[in-house]
Write a structure and sequence with these properties.
The protein is of the alpha/beta class. 37% of the residues lie in helices and 14% in strands. The chain has a 7-stranded parallel β-sheet. The protein has a 3-stranded antiparallel β-sheet with strand order 4-5-6, with no helix packed on it. The chain is globular, with a radius of gyration of 21 Å. The two termini are 13 Å apart. The relative contact order is 0.12.
Length: 351
C-alpha cells in the first residue's frame, strides 16, 4: 500500500455517512484516501496504517443469532443453547445468569451435563440476510461470554469456577471442557466467515480481572487458558483474519499471556495504564491508548489541537501501531479528532 499519499484538507469533509439506528442521526465519516476498513487492515497486517484509527473506523457487532444462542441475549430474559437461564437487568442494560442454584456444582460434572449445540441447525442464511456488512468499515463479530473462564462462570458461578482452575481434583475436567469449547469456537468462527466474508477480524471475550487485580495467577493463566487461546487465534489467523480481545478489569499484569496466546490487539479498561502498556508492549500487541483527559468545556480549541499533536508525536512510531481507546471517547471532540486525524495522516505518510 502507498502511504505517501499527501494529505489534503478536503479529507476532513464528510465523504460518507454511517446510517443512524433507533432514531439517532447519521454519523459523518471523512473523505479519506482509503476506506476505514483498509486502514484497519493496514494497521493489523502491515503495522503501518494511514492514520490513527478510532472507534468510528471499526465496529463490534453483536450478531443476534450468536447473542441469542451463545451470548447474553437481548432486552428480555432468555435461555441459551446450553440451557442456562439469563435474566435481563434494565438498570445495567445487560443480562446475568438467573440467581439461584448453579447449573453444575463441580467441574467434574461438565462432561455429563454440558451438551454443545448443533449450530448447523441454526438459520445462518437468514442471519446473514438480516445483517449486511458495510465494506467501508472494519467490522468484527464479538463473541460475548467467550469459551473459557466467562463460560465456566455461567455454568458454576464465579467463586466455584475460580476454585476449579486451581483444584487438582477439577483441573483436568476444566481442561477437557476448554479443549472441546475451543474446537466449538473454531466452528463458530468458520460459520461467521462463511456467511459474512467481509469480517476481517474476530473479537473474542474472556474477562480475567477485577477493578484492582487479576482473578488468577500468571501460572494459572499459562496452564489453564493460553494453550486454548493460542489454538483459537491460530485457527483465526489461518483464515486470514486478525484477533482482538475484550477482557475487562486490571489485566495489565497478564498482557504477556495475551501476547503468547496470539492476541493481536486489546482495548483495556481505564483502570489500566494504557500509555505504559503501549510503551512496554506496543511492538508485540496493538494497544488502544487513552489520551490524557481534559475538560472539553474549559479547554480551548487550540489547546485541544495541541494535545492531539502531542499525542501523535509521542505515539506514532514506525512498526508500533495503536488505536485510540474506545474508553477515551469522551474527549474525542471535533477539534481533537480532526487534529488527530490530520496530524497522524501526515506523520504516517512520512515513514
Amino acid at each position: 500500500m502507498n502511504r505517501k499519499i499527501p494529505f489534503e484538507k478536503n479529507e476532513l469533509l464528510p465523504g460518507d455517512f454511517i446510517p443512524g439506528r433507533a432514531g439517532r442521526p447519521d454519523t459523518p465519516i471523512r473523505a479519506t484516501p482509503v476506506s476505514a476498513r483498509e486502514n484497519i487492515s493496514a494497521m493489523y497486517f502491515d503495522k503501518h496504517p494511514y492514520w490513527i484509527p478510532t472507534a468510528i473506523d471499526a465496529a463490534m457487532v453483536a450478531l443476534p443469532l450468536y447473542n441469542m444462542t451463545l451470548g447474553r441475549g437481548g432486552i428480555e430474559d432468555f435461555t441459551d443453547s446450553f440451557g442456562i437461564e439469563w435474566e435481563y437487568v434494565p438498570q445495567v442494560n445487560g443480562a446475568i445468569v438467573r440467581p439461584g442454584e448453579p447449573f453444575i456444582g463441580n467441574a467434574n460434572e461438565l462432561k455429563d451435563k454440558i451438551k454443545f449445540p448443533n449450530m448447523d441447525e441454526w438459520d445462518w442464511e437468514k442471519a446473514a440476510e438480516d445483517f449486511k456488512v458495510d465494506m467501508k468499515r472494519g467490522y468484527q463479530p464479538t463473541l460475548i461470554n467467550g469459551f473459557w473462564f466467562e463460560r465456566l462462570v455461567s455454568f458454576m458461578e464465579f467463586g466455584p469456577a475460580a476454585v476449579a482452575l486451581i483444584d487438582d481434583e477439577q483441573k483436568d475436567a476444566v481442561k477437557a471442557f476448554f479443549e472441546e469449547s475451543t474446537e466449538f469456537a473454531m466452528k463458530v468462527v468458520d460459520k461467521m466467515i462463511e456467511y459474512w466474508p467481509g469480517f476481517d477480524g474476530i473479537n473474542i471475550h474472556d474477562d480475567w480481572a477485577g477493578q484492582k487485580a487479576p482473578f488468577f495467577s500468571m501460572e494459572t493463566a499459562y496452564e489453564m487458558f493460553v494453550p486454548y487461546m493460542k489454538a483459537l487465534t491460530d485457527h483465526i489467523h489461518s483464515k486470514g483474519r486478525y484477533v482482538s480481545l475484550h477482557s475487562c478489569g486490571h489485566g495489565y499484569d497478564r498482557v504477556q499471556a495475551f501476547i503468547d496466546g496470539g492476541i493481536d490487539s486489546w482495548d483495556p479498561q481505564p483502570m489500566n495504564d494504557t500509555q505504559a502498556l503501549f510503551e512496554h508492549y506496543g511492538d508485540k500487541i496493538i494497544i488502544a491508548v487513552a489520551p490524557d483527559r481534559f475538560d472539553p468545556e474549559t479547554t480551548s480549541e487550540e489547546e485541544q489541537r495541541s494535545r492531539a499533536r502531542d499525542f501523535v508525536d509521542r505515539f506514532c512510531i514506525p512498526g508500533k501501531p495503536l488505536t485510540v481507546a474506545g474508553y477515551g471517547a469522551s474527549i474525542l471532540t471535533p477539534a481533537f479528532s480532526d487534529e488527530l486525524y490530520e496530524y497522524s495522516r501526515k506523520k504516517y505518510a512520512s515513514f
